[in-house]
């Protein structure tokens, strides 16, 4: 297991260095003067330009600048936002719980609905139920989620008036952030109706962000189940006279879950990409909306830092998934 | 109900067309047409291609023609609808049906260009990596890992921010982001084929590396690439529409479906048709291509073939 971990790290570290080079060179690829871009000052005298250039360290060789940048990153310095003058990492930490809460709800939604749907479709292979489930899954898989979000807003917020249109909680409520998770914080605050408000704000974004993972998980579960159900040991279990529930629920499902767990791990990147669209539609104050807003504000240090943090996060999650997978399935370690 | 037997590989006739190629197509069609969804997808896709090609003949109005007296007219079946604007008009009085028809051109064009660029690029890089192995392979795969470390839409968004918003830059960004999937698939297929007898025979016969790579090996690696290409086609349409929706793709007044959605957003609670219809067009196009993709996978993947 230790060697397996070392092998993974040997691939991961050069990849992270590559990612940091991309994030570092990004500002230099932009048309225009990086000093002007970074300082946010459009018009400046040559003396002022030289002074800022020196402050930012731009008068040094590029390799020195890169290692300086990398050294800063390793110490948690991802630069400073032009528009708010706050450190990028601090902003990220402040906004990340919102995205994490939404993503967790969405993945739970996808798993709770997707795995049973896939199992039923596999058991009733070829039936009308199978066709309906797989047809729906393919529609979900093909869904432009930004449009799906707008449709849900028209129906549930516009016509039925059941859910709010945007934000994380009604402006009536105010309480200190303890965990950063609105569902937990609203419960802790003890205010009447706060939890209901937070939950009703969360429903539509959860459905929108969970739709594609739901479709992918249902399809993957079905094909994994079909493969396992034709195995000899399942036939043996059936021949022994075990109930259908035991055969499917205990014997088959456990083995079918191995590829499904990998699929769920791969959804992390999908979720973060989906968060960009979902958070923009619902004005959800998370890192997806933060990145889009920064692109529009041309807040390059935020784009640069955010890109690096998000990529690092995905790499970390992939490493954890790999390691878990190695624990569950010892064959993979070799 | 008896299922018809698969046509045998040795189908020969008096036809002058290369018999083996014809038989292979017949076999492919046999498996493809067994999947009803795939055939429906194909028919709808052909319909879209015809719409795109003959857009100026079919569309009742120009895509950017404004009718000042017809702002936010609902579709014809609703009260206040007019037969001149079957699917209604948008906030500046343009005919939605015509814009949707012209939009087909953009979406299919995006799909074709992005898939072609990432397919060709991915094949060349992947074949080189899989054929030469060693440090070339390691270097290429590390670069691909780096691209894959970013969420694709985020990387595309940032690339467009660097290159400047617009349809061309959006396509370049999406093609770049899709590249690694083709590289990985090609490399894996080439590595599997490289030491087969027919390749060794060709090498012994004196074939040079370039010929071995692209003439001998590549045609036998195409099946997974074709399936991935259909998937890229539909994803390219989705991502380009998403960039358009975020304001970073095609710019107004281009009748691109994602851009149309972005322009219509503020009217979402007042005029359902300006929001609903462009999204429906995206969904149906992507769905048709994905249905075809499932059929292609069934027809081309030998593991799933029932003989």
Automatic annotation (TrEMBL), chain A:
The keyword Transmembrane helix applies. It is found in: Cell membrane. The chain crosses the membrane at residues 6-27, 102-123, 135-157, 169-188, 194-217, 256-282, 302-328. Keywords: Cell membrane, Membrane, Transmembrane, Transmembrane helix, Transport. InterPro entries: BPD_transp_1_N, MetI-like, MetI-like_sf. Residues 96-325 form the ABC transmembrane type-1 domain. It is a multi-pass membrane protein. CDD domains: TM_PBP2. PANTHER family: DIPEPTIDE TRANSPORT SYSTEM PERMEASE PROTEIN DPPB-RELATED (PTHR43163:SF6). Belongs to the binding-protein-dependent transport system permease family. This is ABC transporter permease subunit. It comes from Mesorhizobium marinum.
TrEMBL record, chain B:
CDD domains: TM_PBP2 (cd06261). Gene3D superfamilies: MetI-like (1.10.3720.10). It is found in: Cell membrane. Keywords: Cell membrane, Membrane, Peptide transport, Protein transport, Transmembrane, Transmembrane helix, Transport. Its main location: membrane. Signal peptide: none annotated. InterPro entries: BP-dependent_transpt_permease (IPR050366), MetI-like (IPR000515), MetI-like_sf (IPR035906), OppC_N (IPR025966). This is ABC transporter permease subunit. The keyword Ribonucleoprotein does not apply. It holds the Pfam family OppC_N. Residues 104-293 form the ABC transmembrane type-1 domain. Belongs to the binding-protein-dependent transport system permease family. It is a multi-pass membrane protein. The keyword Zinc does not apply. The chain crosses the membrane at residues 38-59, 108-132, 152-178, 267-292.
């Amino acid at each position: 297991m230790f060697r397996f971990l070392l092998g993974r790290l040997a691939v991961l570290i050069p990849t992270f260095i590559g990612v940091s080079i991309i994030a570092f060179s990004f500002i230099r690829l932009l048309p225009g003067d990086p000093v002007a871009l970074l300082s946010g000052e459009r018009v400046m005298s040559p003396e002022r330009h030289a002074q800022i250039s020196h402050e930012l360290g731009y008068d040094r060789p590029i390799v020195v600048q890169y290692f300086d940048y990398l050294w800063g990153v390793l110490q948690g310095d991802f630069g400073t936002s032009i528009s708010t003058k706050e450190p990028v990492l601090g902003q990220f930490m402040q906004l990340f719980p919102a995205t994490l809460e939404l993503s967790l709800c969405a993945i739970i939604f996808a798993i709770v609905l997707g795995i049973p749907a896939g199992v039923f479709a596999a058991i009733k292979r070829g039936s009308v139920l199978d066709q309906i489930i797989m047809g729906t899954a393919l529609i979900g898989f093909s869904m432009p989620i930004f449009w799906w979000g707008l449709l849900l807003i028209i129906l549930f917020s516009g016509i039925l008036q059941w859910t709010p249109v945007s934000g994380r909680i009604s402006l009536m409520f105010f309480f200190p952030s303890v965990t950063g998770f609105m569902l937990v914080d609203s419960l802790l605050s003890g205010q009447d109706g706060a939890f209901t408000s937070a939950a009703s704000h969360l429903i539509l974004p959860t459905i929108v962000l969970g739709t594609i993972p739901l479709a992918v998980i249902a399809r993957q579960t079905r094909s994994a189940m079909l493969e396992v159900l034709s195995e000899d040991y399942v036939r043996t279990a059936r021949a022994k006279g075990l109930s259908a529930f035991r055969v499917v629920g205990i014997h088959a499902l456990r083995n079918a879950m191995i590829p499904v767990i990998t699929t769920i791990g791969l959804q992390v990147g999908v979720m973060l990409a989906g968060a960009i669209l979902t958070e923009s539609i619902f004005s959800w104050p998370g890192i997806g909306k933060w990145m889009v807003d920064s692109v529009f504000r041309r807040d390059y240090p935020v784009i640069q830092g955010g890109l690096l943090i998000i990529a690092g996060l995905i790499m970390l999650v992939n490493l954890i998934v790999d390691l878990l997978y190695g624990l569950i399935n010892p064959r993979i370690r070799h | 109900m008896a299922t018809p037997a698969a046509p045998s590989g040795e189908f020969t006739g008096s036809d002058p067309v290369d018999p083996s190629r014809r038989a292979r197509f017949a076999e492919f069609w046999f498996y493809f047409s067994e999947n009803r969804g795939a055939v429906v997808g194909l028919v709808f896709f052909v319909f879209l291609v015809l719409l795109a090609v003959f857009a100026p003949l079919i569309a009742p109005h120009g895509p950017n023609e404004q009718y000042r007296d017809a702002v936010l007219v609902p579709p014809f079946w609703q009260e206040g609808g007019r037969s001149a604007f079957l699917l209604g008009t948008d906030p500046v009085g343009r005919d939605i049906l015509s814009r949707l028809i012209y939009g087909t051109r953009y979406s299919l064009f995006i799909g074709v260009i992005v898939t072609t660029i990432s397919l060709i690029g991915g094949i060349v890089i992947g074949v080189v990596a899989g054929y030469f192995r060693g440090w070339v392979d390691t270097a290429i795969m590390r670069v691909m890992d780096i691209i894959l470390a970013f969420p694709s839409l985020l990387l595309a968004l940032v690339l467009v921010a660097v290159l400047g918003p617009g349809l061309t830059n959006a396509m370049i960004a999406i093609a770049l982001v899709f590249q690694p999937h083709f590289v990985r698939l090609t490399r894996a297929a080439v590595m599997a084929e490289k030491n087969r007898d027919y390749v060794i025979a060709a090498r012994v016969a004196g074939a040079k590396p370039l010929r071995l790579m692209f003439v001998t090996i590549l045609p036998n690696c195409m099946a997974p690439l074709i399936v991935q290409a259909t998937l890229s086609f539909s994803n390219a349409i989705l991502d380009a529409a998403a960039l358009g929706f975020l304001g970073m793709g095609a710019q107004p007044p281009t009748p691109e479906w994602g851009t149309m959605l972005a322009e219509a957003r503020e009217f979402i609670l007042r005029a359902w048709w300006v929001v609903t219809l462009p999204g429906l067009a995206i969904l149906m196009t992507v769905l048709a291509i994905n249905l075809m993709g499932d059929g292609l996978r069934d027809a081309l993947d030998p593991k799933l073939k029932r003989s």
